[in-house]
Amino acid sequence: MDRRHFLILGLLAGFFVGYGVSELLIAGISLPSSGNDLAKPLTGAEAVKYKEECRALDLSTSREDPYALNGQKVWVEGTVYKKGESYGVKPQETFIALKINTTPDYILLSYAGKTPIKKGDHIKAYGEYFYPAEDTTTPELKNKELPMIKVVYIEKINS
Predict the structure, then answer these.
(1) Residues in Cβ contact with 45 at an 8 Å cutoff, skipping those fewer than 6 apart
(2) Helix/strand number for the chain, H first, E second
(3) Which residue has the higher pLDDT, 59 or 14?
(4) What element of type H or E holds 105?
(5) What is the mean pLDDT of the chain?
(6) 97 and which of 24, 56, 82, 125 could share a cystine (Cβ 3.0–4.6 Å)?
(7) φ, ψ at 60 (rounded to 5°)
């Protein structure tokens, strides 16, 4: 093979790799976060203290300015609608779409690590409020900016 063949093969390979990556991104495959923005899960006395510092998330106060609550320690209660985990990536991250009884109908949760929580569980999550976030893999939530909680503690609630 001469140089032209290698050049053509290289261009074709670059095109197909670029096309494949763009299709993954367009199709909504979530890329894992860098780990720098994940809140550290808490246990024991640290979790108890953190829970005391949190207040119930009141989204009615943020309708005009959803950014107003950014950084505040809050808790939210709801039912797990969807759960996903990043595998083979460090740090491990769990993503949850939580169905809540307010507008918007859903809030996103991001948790550094694994949790035994599963779809349909009624939970209470404590963490830091963040807006905007987006779930690119759930059809009914696609293209919607939603609030998110960077969770440090999750507890299952008996329904």
Answers:
(1) none
(2) 2, 6
(3) 59
(4) none
(5) 83
(6) 82
(7) -65, -25
What distance in Å separates the CA atoms of residue 25 and residue 43, rounded to the nearest whole number?
35
- Is the pLDDT confidence value at 20 over 50? no
Domain limits, the chain: 1-31, 44-156
Pick the CATH number of 44-156 from 3.20.20.450, 3.30.830.10, 3.10.150.10, 2.40.50.140: 2.40.50.140
Cis upstream peptide for 41 (omega within 30°)? no
Per-residue pLDDT, 158: 83
Quick check: 90 and 69 in contact, CB under 8 A? no
Kindly calculate the radius of gyration of the chain based on its CA atoms and give it in whole angstroms: 20
Single out the residue of 128, 135, 125, 73 nearest to residue 104, CA to CA.
Answer: 135
Write out the two tokens for 118: 């599963």
147: helix, strand or coil: strand
Each residue's pLDDT tens digit, 68-123: 999 999 999 999 999 998 877 777 899 999 999 988 899 999 999 889 999 999 99
Write out the two tokens for 27: 């199709």
Burial (CB count <10 Å: 0-12, 13-18, 19+), residue 76: buried
